[in-house]
Structures are given as structure tokens and as C-alpha cells.
Amino acid sequence: MTITGKLLINGEWIDGQAGSYRAVDPATGQELSPALGKASTEQVKQAVAAAEAASSTFRRMSVQKRAGFLRACAEEIMALGEPLVERAMAETGLPRARIEGERGRTCGQLNLFADTILKGDFLDVRIDTALPDRQPLPRPDLRYMNQAIGPVVVFGASNFPLAFSVAGGDTASALAAGCPVLVKGHSSHPGTSELVAQAIAKAARVTGMPAGAFSLLMGSGREVGTALVSAPEVKAVGFTGSFAGGMTLVRLAAERPEPIPVFTEMGSLNPVVLLPEALDRDAEKLAEGFIGSLNMGVGQFCTNPGLVLGIGSPALDRFVASAARHLAQQPAGVMLNEGIRQAYSQGVASISSQPGVNKTAVGEEPEGKSGFCGQPTLLTVSATDFIANHALAEEMFGPASLLVSCRNSGELLAALKSLGGQLTGTIHAAAGEMAGYDELIDVLSQRVGRLLVNGFPTGVEVCHAMNHGGPFPATSDVRFTSVGTAAIQRFLRPICLQNYPGDLFPEPLQDSNPLNIWRLVNGELSKAAL
Fold it and tell me: Are 175 and 215 part of one and the same domain?
């Protein structure tokens, strides 16, 4: 497959009608070929209409067929081979191992969602059979299940060209739920986006999916994104990116005549708490692990450890000194695009200029002047200054972190209480040490979606038990995850059928239970036929 620069609408590849642009290699700053088309407002309307036309068929399609489609998507993405890897490397500056690993994760989660829907648990089937003789009033036959919410808009993320992009977790979970997906591809990796979309389009043809079940649109986030979210046929949105971008979509969706849910993941400081005994025992080892996590992917992970907190002591001093030594040896890394590099530089400059903040260590200068490079940076501040200045809780998206030195456990607790919602929180503790920090654990757990012990937050496992979400402003809805099989719940809604004709029941509600799934029948879990 070759990159054509076209858009995928209703199963057809067509030229964009709103001009063109080229991707940029962030390692060199040079433009890449070919020119890529932008969608016009009319083309957005066509794609949305196609998704709406496909919605009923796709929603009612058997889970076996949808699972086959998801597996076919994974197979076709792998079949793209080396051209996909090379293009993703050229458009992102990410190394081969990262791209190949992300490709594996992307295909793995497609297959995981295929397995998940075949088990049927996501349907949450509940049946209360009729009690015609109940006094004083009879009970009707009631049958409840989840069904697809409708067409979903997915915004590709800049920092994961595969796993959070065209065929990423939002797309996989929405397709698994039975929702047509309209992807707004990210301008940082448009060629990669098209190649993946070609694989999905082929999988859709091979497995007999309706043409409008998947579309790829490129262009301005302000124009194309606004048109997609505003379209009345669209019923939900998935977004991973900046706080400003996410909140723009939230407001836009709320102002529609029919407001719709927007599931955003908007970044996080991911506080790491170093308890005294753990520091005293392993200060240097913790510092090395921290710098490795901080600099992973040039710090461009939403789970990057951007905030470290500890109680002042000789052990904390050893941690800071060791972290500074390790960081000073880290080279400047290629960032995903010029905008991210600029925002990172401005963010570090802004935090560095705040009262009480010290620039403790900086990584190596970038070699040459080409490309979009960011230097690793470690800043330090007292808890007193941190608590008094909300500007210090702003995310620096990149390889930078702020260490907060607290005078005592009370000040450490106050610093944590000053934080907003986060994706993750981490505690490093010696054996048995956490037992003395009940209030700290409670405060931190109320502010995060995932609480880690003796680890670092970078690395998000794709599995059934993962929660990649958190209280606002980390996400726009604390109840949901964007990673793991529970992500499918974002794109479902319940329906209850009362006294419905038995011969018209959808398969999950039929008396014979043809799917052989677990159902809550009169308050008891059962796979038995009625």
C-alpha cells in the first residue's frame, strides 16, 4: 500500500477539497511527500451521513461478525509491514523499537476487544421474567441490555501514532461496541494514519462491514473537528490531547441542541511520593528509575512523572543529587512536532521563572540546529512555594519534572491536597511503611485513576483491570477509562424491552440464550435457557 493523500469516506478514497499540506520530519524539520488533502465541510457532512446510514446495520450485527472485523483489522495492520514502521518513524522521530512495540499493542488491543465482545459481559444482560399473578400488581416481562450509542468521533493523538490514533483504543472500543467511527487524523502523522486506515478499509471489505462503519478525515482541528462534533448524527467523542483542546470539545458538545458525551484525556502531573524509609534505603536507585521514566519517549507520555514529593532529609538530598547527575547525562531528544517543542520550552521557562523554583539540572544540548529537540530538565521548589502558587501545578509536556521538598508529613499532605485530578499517583515505600500514612493514601487515591506502589507510572498495560482515567482535569469524566476492556462502556447505552414479542428479541435477550453468555435472570447469574 502507498500513501495517496486521500480521505476515506463511505468506503471510497477521495481527494480532499479544502487544500493540502505535507507532514514534517521532526528530526530534520523537512517536509515529507506526498501532499495530503484536507476535508471540506461538505465532505465532513458526507462522512457523517455515511456513518449514520451504517449505524443501524452495524449496531445489530452479531458479535461474531464484529469480532471477525476487529481481528481482520489487526491482521491487515501487521500486513502493512515495514512501510508503516518507516513512515511512522519519519513522521514522529520515535525509534523503531517504540513504533514496533506500539504496533503490537495496537493489534493486541483490537484482538482483546474481539475476545471481550464474544464473552458478552459488556452487554450486561438483565432479565426479570413476568409475574402475572403477583399481588397487588403483576410484573411485566423486562429485559435489559447495552447497545451501541451511535456514530463516534475519534481524534487521533499526537504522541501515539498507532495505539491512540486511527486504530487505537478509542476506535477499537467504539467498533467493538457497534458504533461507526469517524476518525479525525492527527496532522503530525497523516501518512501513518492513511496507511492504517487503508488496512481497516480492507478489513471492512473482506468481512462485509457497511461502508460507513469507518471513515478517515484530515484537516484543521478547528474546522474539521468542529464540524464533526457539531454534527447532529454524532453521539459521542473520544479525545486524547491538551487541556485546551479537550475543553474546547467539551464546551462545543455541551452547547449542541442535543448535548453529547466527550471522553477526554487531557494530561496529568502524575505525582510520585517518596516516603522517608524508602528514600533512606534506596535514594540512588529510586533516582535512576525516576530519570529513566521521566525521559522515556522524550517525556511525551500522559503518565510522565512530572511531579515528585518528599520530606526534606539527607536521603532526599541524595535523591536529588543522584537524579541531577543522571539527568545531566541525558541527551536532548526529538519531540513529536514543532508545536509540542515550543509548548514544552515555554512551559519549562514559565515554571522556572516562578518564585522559589530552582533549575537543578538540565540535559545535554541538542546537536546541530535542525529538528525539534527538547532538553530534559529537573526543577526543585519548597512545598511552601508550591502550595501558594497554582501555576506550579501546570503540566510541562516533555522530559521535565518538578521536585517539591516538604518540611514534614503535614506539609506533604497539604501539597497533595492542593492538586487537581490526575491519571496516576505513585507511592514509594519500604515494607510496612504505608501503614502509617492512611490519610495520605486516602487523599492521593481520591485524586487519581491509578495508584501505583514502588514503580513508575509510564507504561500502561492493556488488559481487563486497567484504568486510564482520573478526576478532572485529567479527564472530562472520572467514571471511564480509555485503556482496557472497560473502555467499551463509554460507547454503550442501556435499553429495556418491556412485554416485547419473544420472536423479536435480539439474541442476547432470547429465552434460549443462543450466545451462551452470563445473564442476570431474576437476580441470579445464569447461562441457562429460560
Answer: yes
The span from the CA of 258 to the CA of 232, in Å, is 7
pLDDT digits (tens, 9 = 90+) for 167-225: 999 999 999 999 999 999 999 999 999 999 999 999 999 999 999 999 999 998 889 99
- Whether 213 and 289 map to the same domain: the answer is no
Residue 32 contacts residue 90 (beta carbons within 8 Å): yes
- The answer to whether 194 touches 5, Cβ cutoff 8 Å, is yes
User: Active site includes 265?
Assistant: yes
- In the set 107, 302, 373, 406, the catalytic residue is 302
Catalytic option among 52, 91, 194, 265: 265
Q: How far apart are CA 138 and CA 396, in angstroms?
A: 61
Q: Domain check: are 135 and 283 in the same one?
A: no
CB 217 within 8 A of CB 7: yes
For 87-120, the pLDDT digits (tens) are 999 999 999 999 999 999 999 999 999 999 999 9
Determine the structural domain holding residue 174 and report its residue range: 39-266+481-490
Domain count, the chain: 2
CB 473 within 8 A of CB 243: yes
Q: Domain boundary at 433, 453, 473, which?
A: 453
- Which residues are CB-neighbours of 463 under 8 A, at least 6 positions away? 112, 484, 485
Q: Amino acid identity, residue 451? A: L
Residues 281 and 176 in one domain: no
SS (H, E, C) 151-218: CEEEECCCCCCCCCCCCCHHHHHHHHHCCCEEEECCCCCHHHHHHHHHHHHHHHHHHCCCHHHEEEEC
HEC-encoded secondary structure of 102-127:
HHHHHHHHHHHHHHHHHHCHHHCCEE
Residue 225 shares a structural domain with residue 282 = no
Output DSSP code: residue 392: G
